[in-house]
Design brief:
Blueprint (H helix, E strand, L loop, with lengths): L1 E4 L10 H13 L2 H7 L24 H17 L3 E6 L6 H11 L7 E5 L8 H13 L11 H12 L5 H11 L3 H14 L7 H5 L6 H12 L3 H11 L5 H8 L3 H13 L14 H10 L2 H17 L4 H8 L10 H14 L3 H11 L7 H14 L5 H11 L3 H17 L3 H14 L8 H13 L5 H15 L8 H13 L4 H8 L9 E2 L2 E2 L2 H11 L3 H18 L2 H18 L2 H17 L8 H6 L1 H6 L4 H9 L10 H16 L3 H15 L11 H8 L5 H17 L3 H15 L1 H15 L5 H17 L3 H18 L2 H13 L17 H11 L4 H8 L3 H15 L7 H5 L4
Length: about 900
């Protein structure tokens, strides 16, 4: 049983409740046991407890949640079932509630009970998080009813004995509404006033909830004239109050304060255990709220000064600074900034934001730097305020280097938010502002402007006119300063007609390790370079990149990093025609997106690269649905990203027979891709559109396919050439068409585009069957069916099987059991288990839940007809 209780004074402490839950247990472990518990991804949570670790980077705050989950999974794996009991969750810090929500989505398969008690109507951010948790997880909610009149009467009789008449019992119930705590408070007050006579019912009626504070003050005042000051100091300091701080804030001496505290415990105002907590949070709240507002603010300022002088933790001081007026405590801004740094280190961005916003209210602060820090944390929680804060910081920064770095961060943010026009205006003004400064980051601004022009039909003319100058800027360079511009040009060059050697030269030399962060921000440079590698079919390099990104994401606990690595792995496998593997990666990507509430908008590129997997694999219906429902903001929807979404949607619609819908999407795609000069290495939109055009537009269809063939040969892309030849073969028909289909298959033989080869063989076999050349047709169709099955192209395989039946052949049946029947996910999990990995290790490596691992293993055992882990290796053999 791990327990924690929220406190009104501590609700801005990042991961305060999490530290309450796990802290005592962690302190009880010897160093080797603690080190074992923080092995693997759990190390990402070490900073939360002040136990070292690499710390959490801004932009990867989810790493703290990821690490906490695996810390808890380790506890459950090595010990008994666990109950996490959180009381007064309405006073929880936001970071702890986010963990509760994160954990709640991953409870399946864990021997764990998560129980939270909270007031349902308490206002504030915490209440919103609690409501979201309940709504998202559909958790059972218990709402205890007030005590009945009979229940109230039983308590009154037990405490008052003979003085408990029916009228007294009824008055007590009426005054308290059946609230057990208020009943106890009322009875405590009555006992303090009793002189042996039965209490008057009118006296009871006047002693409802509003009397608690007055009652406590009266009882404290009877103990000592300074009793009221001590009890108010305890209410202001909260549960963290100690004797030294209470003494200083109350203006007393140590012995006198200690005596008063003992008296308050004896009077049932403070709890008897150490810590000087109030007997109930409602008592503390009543005392605190009875202090006039100005007096409360003054007491908090004094408390902050006292704690600061006593060397208290920065967050403990900051909790009081948040509740007092600016300029009331010397050094407040520095304390708030340190508190924010500590909260960010632990991955508690909400707390860091609160501290930094308060620091901005202090006089004489370095506003530009604070705004930059604040916006960096606001980005983590996707707070739109980050944009105006960065804009102001950039304007205020006197140092041009700092101003340029802020401008670059804002440009990244505006791009990710889809605010395309605002981003371009920012970059244009930045280039004008820093025109005379020889700053390294200026080339990064050039990269941004190139991207805005190169990916948007509205501005692509400017980009094409400027392209010679941009190429000259990076000619012969391989340094870090030019990297972003080189990689941006590599991506745009791969899409257009840059020779493959030039594209690879712009990326060379590759970094020793691929990682999304660049300085304090997530960088779009790595995705740009990765896309370039994929487009020119440098798939070995792309595989290295995807693995490095995945490992880097795992190390940092960055969901965005992991999604990028897994997504690019899916893209690479789809380009190779390994649709089974692409499906497994895409499913992991979807699970991560769903669990972490990420938008698919940021993943349009990866889904576009996986267009074949989405179109050919019925099991990816969930991804297809996400694409069809995706709405990009204008004018972002009119850029290349919008075209990619449209092209994938067209493929999905065509696969289900919606030719009209697919044609409309492809025409819209053409309006975006044509002015961008998107070549066939990047997209086969010309061929796809040509095959959907009606017979009345046959000449346009042939022209589109011929144009694609010419472009493909110019860039020496076997994949693109084979697709264009196949399209021309289908459009021309007859002997000329068969010749083009034969040439398509010949070009694709030996290339990495094995799925395209299967398609060309299928179309050639079908054409020969229609020409009554059945023997050769059956041979080619069998080869196409075998390739389609190996690629995992299920819809293509089904079409080829139908052709084989028409050609008089009997296609092979799909395996329904054994290793061949395993799904990609089942195959991966089974292979890992066969190699000796535990369920926890498999879940960590594949980024899925423990429940998913157990489900895949159960299905694998059934299909393989085995009953134990030890039989897996022999059962799956080389199929894994």
């Amino acid at each position: 049983m791990l327990r924690a209780r929220g406190s009104e004074m501590e609700r801005d402490f990042g991961f305060g409740l999490v530290r309450q839950l796990f802290g005592p247990l962690l302190r009880s472990l010897d160093p080797p046991a603690r080190a074992q518990l923080f092995a693997g991804p759990a190390v990402l949570a070490a900073a939360i407890f002040g136990l070292g670790g690499e710390g959490l980077e801004v932009g990867a705050a989810e790493s703290s949640l990821y690490g906490l989950f695996w810390l808890l999974a380790g506890l459950l794996e090595s010990g008994p079932p666990v109950v996490l009991a959180i009381d007064d969750a309405h006073w929880s810090d936001s970071a702890s509630l986010r963990f509760a929500r994160y954990l709640g989505q991953r409870l399946d398969g864990l021997p764990l009970l998560l129980a939270l008690a909270a007031r349902p109507s308490e206002p504030g951010v915490q209440a919103e998080l609690l409501r979201g948790l309940v709504a998202d997880l559909e958790v059972p909610t218990l709402r205890p009813a007030p005590l009945s009149e009979a229940g109230t009467a039983a308590i009154v009789r037990a405490r008052l004995g003979a003085g408990a008449s029916g009228e007294v019992e009824a008055a007590a119930h009426e005054a308290t509404g059946g609230n057990p705590f208020l009943i106890e408070e009322l009875l405590t007050e009555l006992a303090a006033e009793a002189d042996g006579a039965a209490p008057a019912t009118d006296r009871i009626a006047a002693m409802g909830p509003e009397r608690i504070a007055a009652s406590v003050s009266e009882r404290a005042g009877r103990l000592d004239p300074l009793g009221v000051e001590v009890v108010r100091a305890a209410a202001v300091l909260g549960d963290a109050a100690d004797l030294r701080a209470l003494t200083a804030l109350a203006g007393s001496d140590r012995e006198r304060t200690a005596a008063i505290l003992d008296g308050l415990a004896a009077a049932s105002i403070l709890a008897p255990e150490p810590g000087h907590r109030f007997v109930h949070p409602l008592v503390r709240a009543a005392v605190y709220e009875a202090i006039p507002a100005a007096g409360r603010a003054g007491l908090h300022a004094r408390a902050a000064a006292v704690l600061l002088a006593q060397g208290a933790d920065a967050e403990a001081v900051a909790a009081h600074l948040l509740l007092c007026e600016p300029a009331g405590v010397e050094g407040a801004a520095g304390v708030l900034e340190r508190a924010a740094a500590g909260a960010a280190l632990r991955g508690a961005p909400d707390s860091a934001i609160a501290y930094l916003r308060r620091a901005l209210e202090e006089p004489g602060v370095e506003r530009a730097e604070l705004l930059r820090l604040l916006a960096g944390v606001e980005v983590v929680v996707r707070d739109a305020a980050a944009i105006p804060h960065l804009q102001e910081a950039a304007e205020l920064a006197a140092d041009p280097r700092v101003a340029l770095e802020i401008t670059l961060g804002l440009a990244d943010l505006l791009s990710l938010a889809g605010q395309w026009e605002a981003a371009k205006q920012l970059v244009d003004s930045g280039l004008a502002r820093f025109e005379r400064d020889e700053l390294p980051g200026r080339l990064d601004l050039e990269a941004f402007r190139a991207a805005y022009g190169g990916y948007d039909p509205a501005w692509v003319g400017e980009f094409h006119a400027d392209l010679p100058r941009l190429r000259a800027l990076v000619a012969g360079r391989g340094d870090e300063e030019s990297k972003r511009l080189r990689w941006a040009l590599a991506a745009m060059g791969a899409i257009r007609d840059f020779p493959r050697s030039e594209v690879l030269g712009l990326i060379d030399p590759p970094p020793p390790g691929w990682s999304l962060p660049s300085g304090d921000r997530e960088s779009s440079a790595v995705p740009a370079a990765t896309c370039a590698l994929l487009i020119v079919d440098a798939l070995t390099e792309a595989e290295t990149m995807a693995s490095a990104l995945t490992e880097d994401g795992r190390r940092r606990g960055s969901v965005i990093g992991i999604v990028s690595g897994v997504g690019f792995s899916a893209a690479r496998n789809s380009r190779l025609g390994l649709l089974h593997a692409a499906e497994a990666d895409l499913n992991v990507m979807v699970e991560l997106i769903d669990q972490n509430h990420l938008s698919l908008m940021a993943l349009t590129t990866m889904v576009h690269f996986c267009i074949d997997a989405v179109a050919e694999r019925p099991q990816l219906a969930e991804v297809a649905a996400m694409v069809e429902e995706l709405e990009l903001p204008a004018p972002f929807s009119a850029t290349q990203s919008g075209g990619m979404v449209l092209e994938v949607r067209a493929a999905i619609r065509a696969a289900r027979g919606d030719r009209a819908g697919a044609l409309a999407d492809l025409r819209a795609t053409a309006e975006i891709f044509a002015p961008l000069e998107a070549g066939p290495r990047f997209s086969h939109w010309r061929s796809s559109l040509a095959l959907l055009l009606p017979e009345s537009e046959h000449e346009e269809a042939v022209a589109l396919a011929a144009e694609e063939l010419s472009l493909a040969r110019a860039v020496e892309s076997p994949r693109a050439e084979g697709v264009a030849l196949r399209t021309l073969g289908l459009l021309r028909g007859g002997e000329e068409g068969v010749a083009a289909l034969r040439e398509s298959a010949a070009v694709l033989h030996g290339s990495v585009a094995q799925l395209e080869l299967a398609r060309s063989l299928a179309e050639l076999g079908a054409a020969l069957r229609r020409g009554n050349q059945r023997a050769e047709a059956r041979e080619l169709l069998r080869e196409a069916a075998d390739l389609a099955q190996r690629c995992g192209a299920e819809r293509l395989e089904e079409r080829v099987h139908e052709e084989l039946r028409v050609a008089g052949a009997r296609p092979r049946r799909r395996a329904l059991s054994g290793a061949a029947a395993l799904t990609p996910g089942e195959r991966r999990v089974a292979a890992a288990a066969a190699a000796g990995a535990t369920n926890r290790e498999i879940a960590q490596d594949l980024f899925v839940s423990l429940r998913t691992v157990e489900m895949h293993l159960t299905n694998a055992y059934r299909k393989l007809d085995i009953s134990s882990r030890s039989e897996l290796a022999g059962a799956i053999g080389g199929a894994a």
